[in-house]
Amino acid sequence: MTLEPRGNRDDLVHASAFGDESAASDEAWTALAQLLDAAQPDFDAALDDEAAWIGGVRRRVAQRRKQAKRRVLAAAAALLACCGAGWIAASRMPQRAAAPEPPDAAPAAFAVTAAWDDDELDLELAWTLRHAATIESQWRRPADRLAFVRQQMDELQAEFDGDSL
Amino acid sequence: MSDADRTNDEREQLTVWVRRHGRAVLGYLSGIVRNRAAAADLLQDVFCRAWQARDRYRDAGCERAYLLRIADRLACDHARRRKRETPLAGEQTELAERPGRENPPWERMARAETRQLLASALDALSEPQRRTLLLRYYGNLDFQQIAQLLGSPLNTVLSHNRRGLAALRQLLAEKSE
After folding, report:
1. From CA B115, how far away is CA B109, in angstroms rounded?
2. Number of domains making up chain A
3. Would A34 be classed as within a structural domain?
4. Which of A129, A164, B138, B152 is 20 to 30 A distant from B21 in Cα terms?
């Protein structure tokens, strides 16, 4: 009497069980396929009027296209509105920034008080206006400042003396 | 090629798609959504979407797999929506016979019995098992293709197939007793 190795026996048992299961699965699969085959005439009936059905698909495609177009247009309109609002806001910003400041009150006050009747002050003001540029340019050079002041004082003195004579 | 010729060609192609795969896709949808009206509506949607995306579709000879993939996505979306909705009382959810078709009584009885048996067989399956088995039947796809279509690992698909068939076997055994 010969004994088969244990591994082989296990394999045979497993193969046999697997074979049984496989056969039963095939049977179940065949039964399901038969049921689905039997239900097929119902599906054939649903597509009896092929032309009408395809027409329906084409209408649906057209409807979807229209919807997509409408969505694109709505999105474009929204984008345009946003851009317009942004542009208006941006165009207003520089105007606000460049808006002139209210005029200073000092020059107006000066203009009112400028109509005085003091001859001496008038003379001094006239001289200052005449020499404003020179004074300013000389004043910016500290080394000449003293000499300049002296010279101007002398000139003024001479002018004053001449006037008084 | 003029626009009219192109339109005619496209119409012809759509007709070919419907003729070749319409019934299979409708069968798949009916098996998943279990409602004839909803399945017919989804079928139009499937062809509509497939038609709109036809430029992106690479003609690799797997038209049916392409259509079934769209059908599967739409059916899943529909099922998700249905979960959120509350069905009205008496709403028809089974695969019922189309009204208005005059068949002999014995034929109607036989069909009703078949439908009943099919409905109970599909009820016995979980959703992934149903999808796997129906894709195998209607798409005539191998497990690798089904795994790709469902976006699941091959072993998972094989497991769904095996368990689904086991559930059917059990149902058949109960019916035969």
Report:
1. 10
2. 2
3. yes
4. B152
User: Is the ipTM reported for this complex over the cut 0.90?
Assistant: no
pLDDT in tens, B87-141: 544 444 445 455 555 667 777 777 788 888 888 888 888 889 999 999 999 988 8
**Contact assessment for residue B49 and residue B70, using Cβ atoms and an 8 Å cutoff:** yes
Note whether A118 and A155 are same-domain residues: yes
> CA distances (Å), A110 to each of A114, A115, B130, in order?
6, 9, 99
Residue-wise pLDDT tens digits, A66-89: 998 999 999 999 999 999 999 888
CB contact under 8 A, A24 and B169: yes
Long-range CB pairs of A57-63, under 8 A, 24+ apart, other chains included: A57/B14, A57/B18, A57/B44, A57/B47, A57/B48, A57/B51, A58/B11, A58/B14, A60/B44, A60/B45, A60/B48, A61/B48, A61/B51, A61/B52
Cβ within 8 Å of residue A46, ≥6 positions away: B23, B26, B36, B40, B43, B98
Tell me how close the Cα of A64 comes to any Cα of chain B, in angstroms. Answer: 9
* A112 and A150 inside one domain: yes
Asked if the structure places residue A157 within a domain, the reply is yes
Give the nearest chain A residue to B40 (CA atoms).
A46
